[in-house]
Amino acid sequence: MSVLERYWGYSTFRPMQERIVASLLGGRDACVVMPTGGGKSLCYQLPAAVSEGRTVIVVSPLIALMQDQVVQLTAMGIPAAFLNSSLESRKQPEIMAKAAHGGYRLLYLSPERLARPDTFAWLERVPISLFAIDEAHCISEWGHEFRPDYRQLKRLRQHFPERPLAAFTASATRRVRHDIIEQLGLRAPDKYIASFHRANLNYLVMECAGETEQTERLLAALRAHPSGNIIVYAPTIKRVEQTVAELAAEGVVAVPYNAKLPAEERRRNQERWMSDDVRVLVGTVAFGLGINKAAVRAVIHLALPKSVEQFYQEAGRAGRDGLPADCLLLWQRRDSGLHGHFIAQIQDAGEKERAWKRYSEVQDFVARPRCRHRQVCLHFGETPKWQECQGCDVCSGLPAWLKTDNGFAPTRSARLGFATAANPQGAVPDEQLKDYLREWRRKTAADQGVPAFVVMHDTTLDELCRARPTTLAEVRAVAGIGEKKLATYGRGLLDAMRRYQEGARAAERRVSMSLPERDTLRCLREGRSLAEIAALRARTVGTIAETVAALIERGETEVPDGCVDVEKRRAIEEQCARLGTERLRPLKDALPEEISFDEIRVVVASVRRAKESGGRRAV
Ligand code: ADP
Ligand code: ZN
């Protein structure tokens, strides 16, 4: 059995991993740029696993990540330890002694730890096989996360001239790459630069007139993603708190994350989000480092990030599972003013200049109607062969849930702004056709007893919508359809396309159900009340109410019996007729005190559902 299978249980390497491992085992220096989630850690862990009696030293600034990796490695039977400020001081000598005897295959050090005067003398005694520098872009002033303590790493090459050095980063422009190589003193390193193109991400950039509009759009986005986890990035701690409150007023439960919260609460909030208890997290940029959650369906920015790298890194936390995800950047003209204000206060002339440069790049990124994916690639020194993508507002237009006509009440019909100007009519994906094909896929999958993505990936459905094939040969030409798929589904697909041409439409939109939703639905069917479900699932009633409302809105269930009493329900419905169901706050204000947000939320969901399905039937 291969080492990869034996320890990791993986059958194949990810792109580039095998070659990187070979470089490191061959004792060569290396510079690796690979997007987050690409599988960098395995590149230095595997060489460690096969080198008995020798130790890979990993330098990382992320304490939580070190701890996670050490726990995982230990569980896999690979001896590993870390030394950093979080460790009790009495444990340190023990670890250091064991390390000097080659007791670890991997040893993780923080840059501060490395900088301590006694560290190098001790490291001389450790049987080091190589140094792996994680987050290597932190060594460069040109990077967006420069850390002065990373400059200490220059000394590694001087002290250990014969040990190989490997630098790893998820985000480095050409300039930063050169800087990393120079500062670390890498010798003719093998370079591995992965593509920065993340085709499953949909980059959506939109200028907003003010915070009110941003909030409206944020709500529209949350409604458009009724299941799955979401990260909202706010520019300041105040804005984090304000956003959480605004969402609460609309019946959306969200947890805050910022540096000012007590560590305990921060951890708890993160944990609730990680475990899918609460699906929306509103945080400052402090959130996300070392977070390894694959199924994030959207990342929403409420302000212009400081740099394109920062945007790429934060937005890139969406869709790590490879499934489609939205990266929505809601910016205001004012953001630029704020950036300018902060940059003006920077004392160091060099740093000031670099900050200006980053800022003008990110301004260019949002303001110019050029393919976002392409701009990102170009920013990182990669020149794509294509000019247009299938997943950005410039190439494909804004999705239905973001489009507006008057004011900012989202509607289905209107289209918007410069995106439209740069967007030829034909390139707009037909949402109705997509819904129809989704329904076809669901039925086909159910007939065959396989998951939907086995029938066809979402990206293939998108392609089909664009290509609108009418012959088998045209179906075959669509990306994602090989011979086998053509033989199995080709005919059925053409039939579906023909029925659509003749006027057939999807019966309803469906979204797959998350685990907490299924769990809650089961409880509802057992006739339990919201409070009972909350107690059973150790969640707040608010969280349960939000889940139930989402289920109702999608037509998965009715308003549960005993959840809202008849009188209250009638009162809420009356106010809905009068005030509409766009916002909950006005409804709450108009209703008697004793009617709770949770009750309103649930009834509003059923009213919205009734309108939706009524509207559909009328079409
Ligand atoms: P990075 O450090 O580049 O952000 P990680 O090393 O954390 O990425 O890897 C991301 C995820 O991919 C992890 O869950 C890891 O277990 C998984 N992974 C890495 N290599 C492989 C592989 N060859 N096959 C399957 N999964 C892999
Ligand atoms: Zn594009």
UniProtKB/TrEMBL annotation:
Q: Give the residues annotated as coiled coil.
A: none
Q: Which reaction does it catalyse?
A: Couples ATP hydrolysis with the unwinding of duplex DNA by translocating in the 3'-5' direction
* Cofactors, names only: Mg(2+)
Q: Which GO terms describe its molecular function?
A: 3'-5' DNA helicase activity; ATP binding; DNA binding; four-way junction helicase activity; hydrolase activity; metal ion binding
Any GO CC annotation of this UniProt entry: bacterial nucleoid
Which GO BP annotation is one of this protein's? DNA recombination
Quote the EC number. 5.6.2.4
What residues does the HRDC domain cover? 427-507
Q: Which UniProt keywords apply?
A: ATP-binding, DNA-binding, Helicase, Hydrolase, Isomerase, Metal-binding, Nucleotide-binding
Q: Which SMART domains match?
A: DEXDc (SM00487), HELICc (SM00490), HRDC (SM00341)
Domain (Helicase C-terminal): give its ranges: 214-366
Q: Which Pfam families does the entry mention?
A: DEAD (PF00270), Helicase_C (PF00271), HRDC (PF00570), HTH_40 (PF14493), RecQ_Zn_bind (PF16124)
Please list the residue ranges annotated as the Helicase ATP-binding domain: 21-190
InterPro entries named among the record's database cross-references: DEAD/DEAH_box_helicase_dom, DNA_helicase_ATP-dep_RecQ, Helicase_ATP-bd, Helicase_C-like, Helicase_HTH, HRDC-like_sf, HRDC_dom, HRDC_dom_sf
Which EC class does it fall in?
A: isomerase
Q: Which family does it belong to?
A: Belongs to the helicase family. RecQ subfamily.
Return the NCBIfam families for the record: recQ_fam
Q: What is this protein called?
A: ATP-dependent DNA helicase RecQ
- Please report the organism this UniProt entry assigns to the protein: Candidatus Korobacter versatilis
